[in-house]
Design a protein that fits this description.
Keywords: Signal. By secondary structure, the protein is mainly β. It folds into two domains: 295 residues, TolB, C-terminal domain (Neuraminidase, 6 Propeller); 278 residues, TolB, C-terminal domain (Neuraminidase, 6 Propeller). The strands form twelve sheets. Strands 26-27-1-48 form a four-stranded mixed beta sheet, with no helix packed on it.
Length: 600
């Protein structure tokens, strides 16, 4: 019932509300962090992994390619239009056409054995379902239609059935910021009838692929603890195994054993089982132990005769990235930056944290707005410097400094610290008695609001410190789970996120604690709120739409369901700006106007 409610509310959430009288902030840019790749390219090779060459090499992401049965055509996902759309072309690059497009997330396509239909994943119905496109009539059918997430469709050899993975029976909260989904294997007829689960619940099963005789399905499997290792920001090593299940009897057979991550299995000729091997080296391996292709390999697909294969891999790993990102709403420009970006008033420099790997961000760096001229402003060997915030004057940087997360070294303690814009003059403002972080300046630069936890004594919740006197006061009514405070440029309100009413939602409150107001009210967590320079809009990250792919296939993405939204300061006119399978968050507005784009 809760998931059904989520599906209904998510559809309502996507309908634009009537525009308020305030003008659109088209002259401003929203920067944000993403755990997705900077660019992925498609490659084609012989079936044994030799002769690798680029299939496409473009300045945008192309991924999840699949060969037709005869090996003459390839379908793939491309973000060249701003969202994930599905294209088809011949393997020589000719006759390219858009098959499925629009603002929805469309991905994980595979042609039927006769080439007449295309199965794919799309959230055009409000949640990720398996859809089928008739290439002759161009008719679309939602085959699975469920409030859960359905992923990775695979056609049976006779074209009558589809196998797929789904988190519809997940025992874990799908919309939690910290709990992963579990997935099971299902089969369904191509017309949507006969749906049944053939896998187990409570574990993680993914990427089903049919045997050549159509009697069984092979897939990878692991427990949730190993999923958590694989997607952890520190990229811990996990273990998965390959399994086969008999469609008629349900009998399960283990096909591999031992350590290592093994995903994306596929039966080749002569009963050879190929799969992707995770880990630092990666590669494409056989169950016999032979490695046929080294290096990163993602989502491999073979022709029926096994003579050709396609796959994708990351082609650009620069950090921090500086990428213009096509927004789903052209009134709001997007640029992908690093984590916790903060612009100088001139707009020529950005201060941010140094990396995504690991839950600790030890360095504060400065880069030019185009991503060049990177230099380190602050480094500490033991303490994390988290969420730098440039002062309104552009002369100082506030940030949290300490051990923010409870570990083996005792209490998680951190302070609010200041440095000059050149990195000199470290000053600790707070007294070290609690876990203090996520600072935001008042418009005049005289005060800082921040999150406080672990102290008690009236210092749990949102706190304000006078920079000159270092006097600290608690904002009345705020509690320990109130987080990510952001001071409005108008000075009258502070936005923050809180789970005081269930899910994490966005609220505003006056600096004196009066006027508490809830701005978001939908299932899923909303956080990372940030004010536009004119104080009329709030950008934030939302997890309301859930997963769009199997979590195991996206290492380093512990929360792969965060999308960037904006809304008016009163919570109205919510607009979605991103839609993909990666974790995105920490949005921050540029302070410098640029050319105002026209709004449709």
């Amino acid at each position: 019932m809760k998931r059904l409610l989520f599906a209904c509310l998510s559809l309502t959430f996507m309908v634009p509300l009537p525009a308020a009288e305030n003008p659109l902030p088209g002259a401003y840019t929203v920067g944000f962090a993403s755990f997705g790749p900077s660019r992925t390219d498609l490659f084609i090779a012989r079936g044994d992994g030799s002769g690798v060459r680029p299939l496409l090499s473009e300045s945008w992401n192309n991924y999840n390619a699949a060969l037709s049965r005869d090996g003459k055509w390839v379908t793939f996902t491309s973000e060249r239009g701003g969202s994930a759309d599905i294209h088809r072309m011949r393997i020589d690059g000719s006759a390219r056409e858009l098959l499925v497009g629009g603002p929805a997330f469309d991905d994980q396509s595979v042609l039927s054995p006769d080439g007449g239909k295309l199965a794919f994943v799309s959230d055009r119905g409000g949640q990720p379902d398996i859809w089928v496109l008739d290439l002759g009539t161009r008719g679309l059918t939602n085959v699975t239609r469920h409030a859960g997430g359905d992923f990775r469709p695979s056609w049976s050899p006779d074209g009558r059935w589809l196998a797929f993975s789904s988190d519809r029976d997940s025992a874990n909260p799908r919309l939690s910021f910290s709990i992963l989904h579990s997935t099971s294997i299902y089969v369904v007829r191509a017309d949507g009838s006969g749906l049944r689960r053939i896998g187990k619940t409570g574990e993680f099963e993914g990427s089903p692929s049919w045997s050549r005789d159509g009697k069984s399905v092979v897939f990878y499997a692991c427990d949730i603890a190993n999923v958590n290792k694989i997607v952890h920001p520190k990229r811990l090593r996990g273990v998965t195994q390959l399994m086969s299940i008999d469609i008629a009897s349900g009998a399960r057979t283990g096909l591999t054993e031992g350590p290592g991550e093994k995903t994306s299995p596929h039966w080749l000729e002569d009963k050879k089982l190929a799969f992707v091997r995770g880990g630092p080296e990666g590669g494409l391996s056989l169950a016999t132990g032979e490695t046929v292709l080294r290096g990163e390999v993602s989502s491999p697909s073979w022709s029926a005769d096994g003579r050709r294969m396609v796959f994708h891999r990351e082609a650009d790993a620069r950090w921090p990235p500086s990428q213009r990102w096509k927004s789903l709403d052209p009134a709001f420009k997007l640029v992908r930056t690093g984590v916790f970006p903060s612009w100088l008033p001139s707009g020529e420099q950005i201060v941010l944290n140094d990396k995504t790997a690991g839950i600790l961000h030890n360095d504060i760096i400065s880069v030019a707005a185009d991503g060049s001229s990177q230099r380190t402003l602050f480094h500490d060997e033991k303490r994390s410097a988290l969420a730098p915030e440039v002062s309104p004057s552009g002369t100082r940087i506030a940030f949290g400094l300490g051990n923010f997360f409870q570990g083996t070294q005792g209490r998680a303690l951190a302070d609010i610290a200041l440095i000059n814009i050149d990195g000199s003059g470290l000053t600790i403002l707070t007294d070290g008695s609690g876990n203090y972080g996520l600072p935001s300046w008042s418009p005049d630069g005289s005060q800082i609001v921040f999150r406080g936890a672990g102290n008690g004594e009236g210092r749990d919740g949102l706190l304000i410190i006078d920079v000159a006197s270092r006097a600290v006061r608690h904002i009345p009514g705020t509690v320990v789970k109130d987080n990510f405070p952001s001071w409005s440029p108008k000075g009258d309100l502070i936005s923050f996120t809180s789970n005081r009413d269930g899910d994490y939602e966005i609220y505003t409150v006056r600096p004196d604690g009066t006027g508490l107001r809830r701005l978001t009210n939908i299932p899923g967590n909303d956080a990372h709120n940030s004010w536009s320079p004119d104080g009329e809009w709030i950008a934030f990250a939302s997890g309301t739409h859930g997963f769009r792919d199997e979590a195991v296939l996206h290492p380093y993405n512990p929360q792969p369901y965060g999308e960037i939204y904006v809304m008016r300061a009163d919570g109205s006119d919510r607009r979605r700006l991103t839609n993909n399978q990666y974790e995105e968050g920490t949005p921050k507005w540029s302070r410098v106007p640029s050319e105002r784009p026209a709004h449709p």
